Amino acid sequence: xxxKRVHCIGIGGIHVSAVAxxxxxxxxxxxxxDAVENEHVRELRALxxxxxxxxxxSNIPEGTGTVVYSDAVPxxxxxxMEAAARGIEQCHSHQFLGNLxxxxxxxxxxxxxxxxxxxxxxxxxxxxxxxxxxxxxxTKVPSFSGGNLHIGGSNLLVVEGDEYRSHVLSYHPNVxxxxxxxxxxxxxxxNLSAYTDLFRKVMDQIREQGVLIYERxxxxxxxxxxxxxxxxxxxxxxxxxxxxxxxxxxxxxxxVQNGRWCSRMRQGDRDLQLAVRxxxxxxxxxAALAAAVSxxxxxxxxxTIISGSLGEFPGCWRRFEYxxxxxxxxxxxxxxxxxxxxxxxxxxxxxxFPQSRIILCFQPHQHSRTKGLFDAFLPAFDGADVxxxxxxxxxxxxxxxxxxDVSSEQLLTEIAKRDTVKGITRExxxxxxxxxxxxxxxxxxxxxDLVLIMGAGDIDAVARQLCxx
Length: 469
Known about the structure:
By secondary structure, this protein is of the alpha/beta class. 35% of the residues lie in helices and 23% in strands. It is built from 16 helices and 22 strands.
């Protein structure tokens, strides 16, 4: 049972805004607040939802039964303090969504990389198959009318399971997809062992006679699943491995043909030719995982639906998103912020546009991540012909004082040293903020170049500003 009035703090965030839209569609009176106005806030206001800019105790309407909040909202937030004083129930947005769909069939996609794209692909595929799911994604999907949300009419939830602060444990999947496992979020998980243990806990929450689908080519995912075989078997969990040339579901080496990434997939006597629009080997792996969900679903999904929906999948906001052609320069915006994601995105860019010089404008995300993964970042930029490194994006409420001593200038210095040792000759430039980064891009980009604006902070504004002309 959902209260008739729900107040959302941090309503402009990607996940809380989806919850707010979903509740609004069900006739719940929704209000909210955020520190700044953004496009999500404007979308919510267009739906008739009252959103206050700035946080104050008076923002919570009388009669509010539940307060939903995001990671960016600490207990000391004046609205959370007011809710506590008034005895109003408070719930994180992931826990709220998990409770809302507790009795539903759940398809949960988690892992370090590729969660958003794989979730959007699975949702798109199941919509095309007539399953009518509700889909909640940690980004915007052009084919979803709600952007980060598709509202379905069935008792089925497809959701991106965020591993940050263990939010994925809010869900109890009938189908769990693990894309890959690589140490991330060092501010929460001090080492790979602690990080991997979270995914073990998620596997423990798969419902009996459920399905686990995982990336077999990923060492850490494979080792984790093998270590849990007995427990999975005891609960009658069906385990499906997906891999290139090996696994229950296999796909061939991807190749580019007519501007699409192509691969052949098979499971048993089932066979499928995939030709996807989104570039890169990682996206082919995402597509293979999505197809594996459809092949191992409760009902038979026709292969033409799988190939058609995945083949026309348009991609996601800030996932190798083509923004515009600016004076003969391709502007691409991407959310990559982990070293592996950076390297894979550069690899995809070079494969898709082999004749183009690649200018990478990258903004590291969080001091803790930059410090914890510092050495891994050094080779991650090798695919860039020009590197513009903006200062680290500071995430409010998620930074520790002991991590403040790391900077983008230090990272750039070590990259320069490595370039010298490796014999790499290219331009490396430091930008103290996105405004400077934009100027540096303007000064360097020339016709035929590919400019990648990359990072999970506010660096995307550079791409949007360039494309306003």
